[in-house]
Amino acid sequence: MANDMEATMSILEQASHWWELLHSDSASNADHREFGDWVARSPERVEAYLQTARLAKAIKSPRLIWPSTAAEVLIREAKASPDTVLPFSTTRVSASVGRDESRRVQNRLAWAAAAVLLIGVGLARFILERPQEFRTALGEQRSVLLADGSRATLNTASTIQVNLQKGRREVRLVQGEALFEVAHDAARPFVVRAGNALLKDVGTQFNVDMRSNGTTVTVVEGQVAVDSVATSESPVAQAGHRVGGTLEVLILRSNDRVVITPAGVGAPQRGVNVAASVAWTQRQLMFEHRPLGEVAEEFNRYNKDRIDIDSAELKRQEVTGVFDAKDPASFVAFLSNIPGVETREGANGTHIVLLRSPTAHPDTRGVP
User: What is the distance, to the nearest Å, from the Cα of residue 306 to the centroid of all Cα atoms in its chain?
Assistant: First the structure.
């Protein structure tokens, strides 16, 4: 594809093509490597890509070491150099220029051209190493097929950063919740970082829910090794947590769950209801004896119209049922039918739920 493009397009058109490709969700690691080969061949390509892409973030990145000379000067001097940057021939230096001056001119041009090419290589390396980011807005869900064949399904208001390299696959859950279906590749373990939780997997399916007070990991099938930054700074490949000074590997299998808090990895829960953990993929909320306060917060994760439980006693009441995540009004209507419970409409679409009597103890079992 690159050879055909170079034969039919100008350098500026080629740079525009690379900009569009590399900023699309379909760009692969092979595309990034091919771009690196393309941009490193001449300073003109670097200039064209800089003009087209205007990668201010990349240019200012602390990961790149820039020469002190202004980029405009380097580009201007590189353009004045021969088409083939190296080697430089003395026949291109005017005969009226002295030998010492000729050597200085050659050295300056060689350094300038090399610096511009290094900029191009640096940009290619930055783009190649820069993680891909996927995100969802409030109430949105998204399924992403990764380049290695794995799939990440993002819940509402979630963000992941994906970095797939030759020897490793790493995903960082920046916020929210995601279900991972990992393609088997024993040579490249799949590592997920979520807060202080480190998870290693080869090929399985598991859910990661990151909240302000901790991260919950639930294994749907297969097994996952769990570690925590709070208990070990070693890579996930050495996953485990210290108990009494001894490093133990914590392995979660199907229907297992664990909560990782800032204090470290908690005790694993065996035989949990996995269906409740992944019901969100069907836009459902499934609860088993969950306090109303927590149920309201779950609804608030998906909707702009918030539910406000204005009673400490009511917040403690437990709920069991299956609800539509995008229909808070029906849940509020369900609560309003409970004896002693009153609902009101507040500002900005807020549903206020409160008890008429402090002695009421509503029975909230059942499905609406």
Answer: 27
